[in-house]
Write a structure and sequence with these properties.
One of its GO terms (molecular function) is kinase activity. By secondary structure, this protein is α/β, with parallel strands linked by helices. It has 13 helices and 15 strands.
C-alpha cells in the first residue's frame, strides 16, 4: 500500500514489457555520449548558458583566462557539440569574431513542478527554450500514482520528441541529495525516494529539488536575473518561501532548507500561525489563506484573493487596508532577505503575487523600512505568474547538473 513513508526505489512498481525503460537515443544508459568535462570546462559551459551568446573576448575578460587557454578550454565543448559558434560579429580589424552559444539541439530535458493537485511540466532544449508544456491532474497524491503519471508523460515525450537527457522535478518541501523528498507537507510525503523511483521507471537521471529554488534558477538562467551574479526571490501564495543566488551559485543550505522563511516574524504581525506556537510570522500574515481570512473578517463574508484585489482596486477601503498592509509586509520580508544576502536584484513572485502588483508602492515602502540608506537592489514584481515557470526552473536545474557532471547514473 502506498503511503507517505513508502520510499524504497525497488518498490515503485516493476517495469514490464509494456513499460520498457527507455535509453533515449540508444546505448546502454541515458547519459551515454555525454562527455566527462573538467571543472574549468564545466564553468565555461555554464557561463555560456547563462549569457545566451558570448564572444571569446568577453569570456576571457570575465574568467581571466588567456586567449590560448580559452581556446583549449572551449575545444572539448565544441567537439562534443555542447557549444557551437554563432554568426560572425563585426570587429575592429582582422578576422570577425565568432560568438559562442549552447547548442540547443544537443540535448532535451523535462522539468516538472508538483503542487498539491497538479503536475506542471515542460520539455526544453539544452539552451532552456521551452518546446512543449503539459499539465497533469493528480487525483491521488500518493508517491506511486504520482510517479506513474510522471513516467507516462516522460515516456510520451521520449517517444514523440528528441532524445531526453534528464528530468528535473521541483516541489514544495525539503530534499536531500537532489533525490529524496524528506518532507513535503502539501503532498503528505516523508522520506520518499522520488529521484530513484522516477529514474527506475524512465531510465533517465532525475534531479529533485525545492520548488522555490527551481524558480530562483529559472530567474537566473532565463528570466530577469540573467546577467547578474546575485539575486533573491521571495514567493507568496499557498506558502511563503525564498531562494537566493550568490556568486552565480544557488544557495541550497543544510539540509536543503535555505530560504525557509515562512516562520520569520514580521513587524506588526498579530495573526496566529496554525500548527506553530507563535503569531505574526510570514505564513500567518502573507499566505493566501491568511489574506482571505483577514479579508473575510473585515468584510463579514468569504472573500477570495482575486476578489480582494479587485475590491481594493475599485476603492473599497476595507479591502484596501488588507492589500496595503500585506504588500508592505511583503516588502519588509523582501528587505530582510536582501539585508542578509545583499543581492543585485530581488524578484517577487508566486500564486499570491497579485497583492504586490496591486500595491507596488507599499512593497517599496516596506523594503525601504529595512534598507533605509545606501544602494538598494533592483525590485522586480513578476507580472505574469505561471507554475510552468517553476517547471522551467526544474529543467534548468537538470541542465546545470548535466553541464557540471552531476547527473545521477
Amino acid at each position: 500500500m502506498a503511503g507517505p513513508g513508502y520510499h524504497s526505489a525497488a518498490r515503485w512498481g516493476s517495469v514490464g514489457e509494456d513499460e520498457p525503460v527507455s535509453t533515449a537515443g540508444g546505448g546502454t544508459g541515458p547519459t551515454d555520449g555525454w562527455p566527462e568535462l573538467d571543472a574549468t570546462v564545466q564553468r565555461i559551459a555554464v557561463r555560456v548558458l547563462r549569457r545566451g551568446e558570448v564572444s571569446r573576448a568577453e569570456l576571457a575578460r570575465e574568467t581571466g583566462l588567456s586567449t590560448g587557454s580559452l581556446t583549449r578550454v572551449t575545444k572539448p565543448l565544441l567537439a562534443a557539440g555542447i557549444v557551437t559558434e554563432g554568426s560572425a560579429r563585426p570587429g575592429g580589424s582582422g578576422r570577425p569574431s565568432l560568438p559562442l552559444r549552447v547548442n540547443a539541439a544537443r540535448a532535451s530535458f523535462v522539468g516538472v513542478n508538483l503542487t498539491a493537485d497538479t503536475a506542471y511540466a515542460v520539455r526544453t532544449d539544452l539552451q532552456g527554450t521551452v518546446l512543449d508544456t503539459a499539465e497533469l491532474a493528480l487525483p491521488d497524491r500518493s508517491p506511486v500514482p504520482v510517479v506513474d503519471q510522471l513516467a507516462g508523460l516522460v515516456r510520451r515525450w521520449q517517444r514523440d520528441g528528441p532524445p531526453l537527457t534528464a528530468v528535473g522535478v521541483a516541489l514544495g518541501g525539503h530534499v536531500r541529495d537532489w533525490r529524496t523528498v524528506t518532507s513535503a507537507t502539501y503532498l503528505g510525503w516523508q522520506e520518499v525516494d522520488l529521484g530513484g523511483g522516477l529514474g527506475a521507471r524512465t531510465g533517465l537521471p532525475v534531479v529533485v529539488g525545492n520548488d522555490v529554488h527551481a524558480l530562483t534558477q529559472a530567474a537566473h538562467l532565463f528570466g530577469p536575473g540573467r546577467g547578474v551574479s546575485s539575486l533573491a526571490v521571495v514567493t507568496v501564495g499557498v506558502g511563503v518561501g525564498a531562494g537566493a543566488i550568490s556568486h552565480d551559485q544557488l544557495l541550497v543550505g543544510h539540509p536543503g532548507q535555505a530560504g525557509d522563511v515562512g516562520h520569520l516574524p514580521l513587524e506588526g504581525g498579530t495573526s496566529p500561525c496554525l500548527g506553530a506556537d507563535h503569531v505574526g510570522c510570514a505564513v500567518a500574515e502573507l499566505s493566501t489563506s491568511a489574506l482571505e481570512q483577514e479579508a473575510g473578517r473585515r468584510l463579514g463574508r468569504p472573500v477570495a484573493l482575486a476578489e480582494l484585489v479587485g475590491l481594493a482596486g475599485a476603492g473599497d477601503p476595507r479591502a484596501r487596508v488588507v492589500v496595503d498592509r500585506a504588500a508592505r509586509m511583503l516588502g519588509t520580508l523582501a528587505g530582510t532577505v536582501a539585508a542578509v544576502l545583499g543581492p543585485e536584484l530581488v524578484l517577487l513572485s508566486g500564486d499570491g503575487i497579485a497583492v504586490a502588483l496591486a500595491a507596488p508602492e507599499e512593497v517599496r515602502a516596506g523594503l525601504a523600512r529595512v534598507l533605509p540608506a545606501g544602494p538598494r537592489p533592483e525590485l522586480v514584481i513578476d507580472p505574469v505568474f505561471s507554475f510552468h515557470t517553476w517547471a522551467h526552473g526544474a529543467a534548468g536545474t537538470a541542465i546545470l547538473h548535466a553541464l557540471t557532471g552531476r547527473l545521477p547514473r
